[in-house]
């Protein structure tokens, strides 16, 4: 057999045995048999190279190198394959790293709302709920907001156009304030009442860093025989201090809301020179017309009410400067809370 044929035969036999090696021990035996430095078959073939004629030498030498490289490469490849962990039937490689378990957390606003309920709970206020799709009676009428009031302008509210929703019940809208829940609670309960209601409200505002067409309010309502405005201010101060710290101050500015008399805007500030007052909501003593609308006797009971912007508090506490971050769903933001 000429040298080229011997090399061909060597390669074919070596590759077949490499492919057939069942484990790394068997593979190592194959390697020693074919490429072993002392007794390997390649060693014998190398010895035979000297028999080639001068003319044959370059061709035989090249073939020798090619065969050696091919067998070496096949050995390496088979070695990698054998050292790879077993793949279970069905192609599932149980040793591959799994999908990491990402631990989720509550949205910062939901955490804030939980904390609000907790703080107000300590003051004896229980949490109440109302629907986000409201009728005009609860969003306006019962709150003493007359038909011609600008707050009822369709351009300032999200009225729903769905016929099935409005059929028989009059127009519906996404509530523009949580004050609706005051009415729903007073329709169901008699005084004394001490509730808060935290939830979403909707207004067609132009969206920017401080405005959104959906945001959250915390509504508060306390009704009893001798509820006063001094108590209102105390509750608001205690609440703001519990959430933001003891250097928080509360200020009332005279204002107007149809459902309270007198009415105030509520501002908050800190013992930080140069920091302006920040408006956080509205409040006041429940208007007698509202008490009458739910069948209470305004001569026998009085009450205070307030509505605060939840985002404002949360943004102040964490130094968040853009309200849009709450709804952008960017995990880099959400992960921080
Ligand atoms: N509902 C008012 C608003 O959204 C805020 C408000 C003002 C709520 C006075 C009250 C209140 O309960 O008494 O602007």
Please tag this protein with its features.
337 residues, 10 strands, binds 3,4-dihydroxyphenylalanine, BirA Bifunctional Protein, domain 2, seven-stranded mixed β-sheet
Would you spell out the secondary-structure blueprint of this structure?
Layout: H1 3-20, H2 24-35, H3 41-48, H4 57-83, H5 108-122, E1 126-127, E2 133-135, H6 136-139, E3 158-159, H7 163-166, E4 172-174, H8 179-188, E5 193-202, E6 214-224, H9 229-244, E7 248-257, E8 260-270, E9 278-286, H10 288-293, E10 302-309, H11 310-318, H12 331-334
Parallel strand pairs: 1-5
Antiparallel strand pairs: 2-4, 3-4, 5-6, 6-10, 7-8, 8-9, 9-10
The structure holds 3,4-dihydroxyphenylalanine.
3,4-dihydroxyphenylalanine binds at residues 177, 179, 219, 257, 260, 281-284, 305-307.
In short:
With 337 residues, the protein is α+β, with helices and mostly antiparallel strands. The protein has twelve helices and ten strands.
What is the straight-line distance between the termini?
A: 79 Å
CATH architecture of the largest domain: 2-Layer Sandwich
CATH superfamily annotation of the largest domain? Bira Bifunctional Protein, Domain 2
Q: Give the assembly state of these chains.
A: single chain
Radius of gyration: 40 Å
The H-and-E topology, N to C, reads as: HHHHHEEHEHEHEEHEEEHEHH
The general outline is rod-shaped
- Classified by CATH, the class of the largest domain is Alpha Beta
What compounds are bound to the protein?
Answer: 3,4-dihydroxyphenylalanine
Category by helix and strand content: alpha+beta
- Order of neighbouring strands in the sheet with most strands: 1-5-6-10-9-8-7
Unreliable segments of 5+ consecutive residues: none
CATH topology group of the largest domain:
BirA Bifunctional Protein, domain 2
Give the fraction of residues assigned to helices. Answer: 25-40%
Output mean pLDDT: 92
Total domains: 2
